[in-house]
Give the backbone structure.
Amino acid sequence: MTQKPFVVSNAVGAVVLASVLAFTWLSYHQDAVSLFGILPITWLVVIGVLSGLVFLALPTVIKNLPINTNMVICMVGVGLAARLTLFASEPLWEIDYLRYLWDGGMLANGFDAYALSPNDILSGQVPVAVLVLAYDADGLIEHINYPHLRTIYPPLAEAIFALAYALGEWSLTSWRAVLLAFDLGSLGLMVLLLRHLNRSPLWAAVYWWNPLVIQMMFNAAHMDALLIPFMLAALLFAIRLRPVVMSGFLGLAVGVKLWPVLLFPTLFRHGGLIRRHKILALSMFGLTSLVILFPMITSGLGQRSGLTAFAGSWQTNSALFGAFEHLLTSLFSAFSLYEFDGPKLVRAILAGVLILVSLLLARSSTTRSDQLCQRVLCMTAVLFLLSPAAYPWYASWIFAFVVLAPNPAMMLWTATLPLYHLRFHPFFVENPDYFDHGIVWLEHGPVMVMLLWYRFRSHARW
């Protein structure tokens, strides 16, 4: 066997480790006027794009790497070392983790995070005990994003935030430790799923070594690592024809983020269930989801609800959604149909499209595990492409399933989504239209073109 696969995989691993060291160093210089004549935010984008481009070489050599204990240990060790390195970093231009820490502190101390927004607390018109908690947080609450909104995160996510608080009050390190525990769980589930698919466990490196995933989860400390093991567990039990357990885990996934409900029809249809199992699975999913979401539902979904704001007006880094919105708004304007709200109508139409795709993917049952993985990947990718908010950390959902259903086109996001951080560049801050109508298409356009090329090149539907 040629040594080329070893050389390429070692080079990719070295670049991944070098990139996290660069991110860590950059995190302590992000407020500098310039670094070697270049803005720090530009360095962040350059490091992300270059490491992503190198990473794209990894899937092409995995199939030629031997499966042995040393290779698996190397795969696990490099990804783990990269994550632990970023424990020493400061978050780069991302502060969503502050909301997680605050919500966790609220819940751990017996307060309802759905009842009060940060602005409510800063106004002082709240119980004294809450003000004492805010004082104990040492100014954390003053820097939370969208302080006028109550939290958007479902109850199971809130409970995990509280767990991080219990491990270390207001501690980013404790939060990262929780993320690492969940990410290790995801890795283990990927290996189990790959075994069911009769594929090399080294394919898990497509997620475990992914520099975009590592930076978004362990530098920026985004909470999406919590969602992935629940979805993978649901997929694993669907493959094992355990529909009730599958439904329970998918209900837990909905308790972390709401969108996995779209995966239920596909997972439910796998294996041709008998009537009794269908009833039990439906009941388990409905009951689990309802019980977990009950606190969020009863808190009210008014104008100050983060969920209401996200569903009704949030739009960031989206290509197709922005294009559809512009097209529909222009049509309404051309025909003087000013009574219609174009943005809201686009959201309603695309929500209907997502539901339709979910049902179409489940229109026929399947007994093939690989086909089920492809359908789940398809649903997740369509959601990401049509979403009004296509943040780069959301792509971690896709990469988790690309491990199981390799797709070269979707792997491109590893190298293009780091361009998202250009929105913080002074030029694009002053000229946001150039970002919204230019950069977002550089992020998503190559992936869409490659998907279409593969679709027309092959009769097989991804």
